[in-house]
Amino acid sequence: MGRSVLVTGGNRGIGLAIAEAFADLGDQVAVTYRRTAEGLSDRLFPVQCDVTSTEDVDALFTTVEEKHGPVEVLVSNAGITDDGLLMRMSEDSFTSVIDANLTAAYRVAKRASRNMLKARSGRMVFISSVTAFVGLPGQVNYAASKSGLIGLARSLAREMGSRGITANVVLPGFVETDMTAKLSEERQKEIFSQIPLGRFALASEIAGAVTYLASDSAAYTTGAILQVDGGVAMGH
Q1: How many CB atoms lie under 10 A from the CB of residue 8?
Q2: What is the mean pLDDT of the chain?
Q3: 233 in any annotated domain
Q4: Catalytic residue selected from 33, 106, 142, 220
Q5: Do the domain assignments include residue 185?
Q6: Active site residue 142
Q7: First to last CA, the chain
Q8: What span, in angstroms and rounded, lies between the C-alpha atoms of 163 and 153?
Q9: How far apart are CA 216 and CA 212, in angstroms?
Q10: For residue 98, what is the domain's CATH number?
Q11: What does the pLDDT look like over 88-127, one tens digit per residue?
Q12: CB atoms within 10 A of CB 72
């Protein structure tokens, strides 16, 4: 049997691509979802979880541990957006995004660390965003939450490195999704002009970066930021 892998927000988009990539490697993969788990392959074990709830997160890990054993690879991917210009952004809009994107990562990392520390082994990968480096108008809350993941991961890397636990960050750029497919041709060309590689990333390319960081080949890589952004944020 493969490793016990948990991907939060693994029921769609980038999270689903990551989960499927681990399943392809023969790992036992659990994914969280908030509303529906329809359409998932039987290779994935779906667990409903609100990552903004400590009680839900604890129940999630208990369920996964009973099914697959202690989580050996944690991918913190779940997140939300609630865009708006600063002058119109409510405090609730700001704090809810921070809670779902950053504080939730703390919750799942803390719970996962319990058994990783005992095993003196573990992989944590946090899915940030190129927005953390370049910022975007209307995304003060989102950019702040994604920037925070870098400090979180690097602190964990220093704190738990002596126990064989690594903590790394993947920064996706623009990714080919249903949402980007709906953009007008003119808008797509405008975005492509800002990307040295001139295209959107495939979700599978993000997944490849994550599986690498969770592999034996990356055993000496921790506290790293791996940008998969076509060159948008090079130099940061």
Answers
A1: 26
A2: 95
A3: no
A4: 142
A5: yes
A6: yes
A7: 40
A8: 15
A9: 8
A10: 3.40.50.720
A11: 999 999 999 999 999 999 999 999 999 999 999 999 999 9
A12: 21
Residue 156 domain-assigned? yes
Determine the Cα–Cα distance for residues 147 and 22; give it in Å rounded to an integer: 26
Cα–Cα distances (Å) from 181 to 83, 176, 177, 184, 231, in that order, read 20, 7, 6, 8, 21
Asked if residues 211 and 21 have their Cβ atoms less than 8 Å apart, the reply is yes
Q: Map tokens 């480096």 to a residue.
A: 133
Q: Identify which of 69, 49, 67, 46 has the alpha carbon closest to the alpha carbon of residue 58.
A: 49
146: closest CA among 208, 183, 102, 190? 102
Can you state the percent helix, strand and coil of the chain, rounding each to 5?
50, 15, 35
Domain count, the chain: 1
Domain boundaries, position 95: 4-228
Phi, psi of 93 (to 5 degrees): -60, -40
Q: Which tokens sit at 192? A: 């492509």
Q: Which two tokens stand for residue 12?
A: 């769609």
Nearest to 73 by CA among 14, 136, 30: 30
DSSP letters spanning 28-65: EEEEEESS--TT--TTEEEEE--TT-HHHHHHHHHHHH
Structure tokens at 55: 């009680």
Identify whether 236 is part of a domain. Answer: no
pLDDT of residue 179: 65
Rounded distance between C-alpha atoms, residue 221 and residue 210, angstroms:
12
pLDDT at 183 over 80: no
DSSP secondary structure letter of residue 127: E
